[in-house]
Amino acid sequence: MLTSLGHPSRPRFLLRIVLPFAAVAVTLNVIAAGFLYWSTAEADRISTDRQRALVDLVISQLRETVAHDQESVTVWDDAVDGVRRRDLGWIDVNLGSWMNSYFGHDGAYILDPHDEPIYASIDGGAVDPTKLYDIWSRAGPLASNLRRRLRDVDEEGISDQVLSIGASDIAVAGGRPAIVSVKPIVSDSGEIEQVAGEEYLHVAVRYLDGTLLQELQDSYLLDGLRFSWDDAVAADEAASPLTGSAGNVMGYYIWRPYRPGSIVFGSVWPILVGLFVTGMAVLSVLLLVLRRRSLSLNRSQAEIRHLAWHDGLTGLPNRVHFEHRLQEAVTTAADRDQTMALLYLDLDRFKEVNDTLGHPAGDMLLREFSERLRRAVDPADAVARLGGDEFTIILRNVDSEEAIEQLCSKLVESARHPFHLSNTQIFVGVSIGVAVGRAGEVDAIDLTRQADMALYAAKKNGRSGYAVFTPDMETLLTERRELERDLRKALDLPEQFQIHYQPLFEAKSKKLVGVEALLRWQHPVRGAVGPDVFIPLAEEAGLIDRLGEFVLRGACIAACGWPVETLAVNASAVELANPAYAMRVTNILLATGLSPNRLELEVTETAMSDMDGVSRANVAALRKLGVRFALDDFGTGFSSLGRLQQLDVDRIKIDRSFISGFGSGNGDEAIVRAIVDLAKARGLRTTGEGVETAEQSSFLAEIGCDELQGFLMGRPLSQDALQDVFFSE
Ligand code: C2E
Ligand code: CA
Ligand code: CA
After folding, report:
1. How far apart are CA 370 and CA 368, in angstroms?
2. What is the model's pTM?
């Protein structure tokens, strides 16, 4: 069914569209976040390395500075003189506390040529030089190294800024990290004689912790700078080793490095999270819109498909859809060798309803009928409307042929119930043609043709019934085509046609009052063919106008000299629907000289109830001329007694089926009585048709029926035979 079309289900949409989109979006975001994290970490790393290098640089510059500070007093004649004199007062002022107060040196020592300390001061105060042993652990080797260079007159490193060679290192002094720098005390003028390597030495000590840390922190923004003997650091700290000249690590400077990346990241991440959330929100909205769009697109596609595949009036699948389904049913491999059936349905008397009550009523009938079909048929079986009042049903996987026949009976029965149209109730019926086959063996075209032929046969067998296709139906159809061809030929050779006449009697007096002309066809091969067969054929083949004219002309000529009041001639509804009909009849009357008052045209209800009014106009024009009209076969059509009031006729011919039903106890007598009474009340005359028994005859006479016609009183006779009846005695 088409209802399963369209909408992709929610889980499929989530799986196929939302998930990949979300995955891509999250992956891109993770990559971006990763890249951001990496670049901030890299920025932090570079910045920290820079600060480390800075610390190293500051320390090495400090070593040079200390040495440079020393030169302001060690390259000086007065100092050479002062230390030689061992004037401790002078030494203390100029080489000790001065260095402390002016340059901030933490310690100063003077060594004599034998490296014996003659003076020591710490923090600007003189102390006992012999007590400062720990200085020697480093100053000693430095001093002897320097003396060797002095003796060798190794002047490497001397420049405009550096006036004397020296030796310095990083060492532990007094339990603290320190710069220990040794400089020879030499003459600046060169006028004081000195033995190379035997100079007095000045040792300066500058601690690398304590106040220096504060200075460094302030000058170089080394946040939280401290000195530690080991490199244990907190998460946000960095360590830079303090190494001596020999590469030995003395301890570590530790501080919280400046991390530009983290700072940027810290200020940027809320924005990024915001962007991510917004992005995801926008993506969600877009996906939602996309889903809406695709849903509505699917819907409208389904609608278009539905329109293209369904009949607008009944909502049933249309011809295109039916053909598609039939093809499918015939070829589906899963159904192979299963019995399947195709039903062709055609409403009986639909055209009459349409013509009489109008198209809106016809549409209502079709809708109501399709509703009944839908209810009667399994939803899995496909009902379709091919157009007009033609419907089909495809049955797949049928259990047995009995099942098909049961369904057909059910359908015929359901159509027999009255249909309630806006303000009337009508009785129609349905004829069904059935073709049965095996899926995989039959082909769709054959099946369709067979069902169509079976339908034709069903209609032929009398309406409201069904017929299952049998091969002889094909013969029937061929025969029908041949017959049609022969009929066409016969019209050019009128000797094959003969008009017979059946007498009409007055009911009370049994007097012969008229004749009805009935056409006979003597087929050269088949023999006599009944008008029940060839009249409908002539109507369908468009030959009825010529045939009708032939009968009317012949009958008028024959009847002119006959001693009967009435000549009755049958007129087909197809003839009456021709606007030229009244004119044609008038011409024949003029040409043959038959008085219009003697002619009675027999028409059916169908002809009398046409909507466009052509037939009515023909009837009205001829009645003006004096031609009378009889309503033939009354009671077989769909209309009720009520409609009798509106018909423009002079006589009612009560159908044979009612007369033959007398005595069977189904109330036909009552119906006929009612018809006669009603006709009388309207001033119409009545004829009872098909009177075969004396009982029928006397009953009809008794209830006031005007005329009788039937085998009891007279069969249709040839013109010659009738002539004998009239003129023999
Ligand atoms: P209809 O107009 O109802 O004609 C009466 C039919 O009933 C005739 O059949 C007649 O032979 C038959 N009939 C008369 N009395 C009895 C009876 O007592 N018992 C039985 N069983 N039948 C009786 P027929 O001649 O075979 O004509 C059949 C129908 O063909 C006619 O029915 C009429 O509708 C149509 N028809 C015949 N000739 C013409 C014609 O020239 N033009 C047109 N348009 N239709 C014609
Ligand atoms: Ca008739
Ligand atoms: Ca009749």
Report:
1. 6
2. 0.54
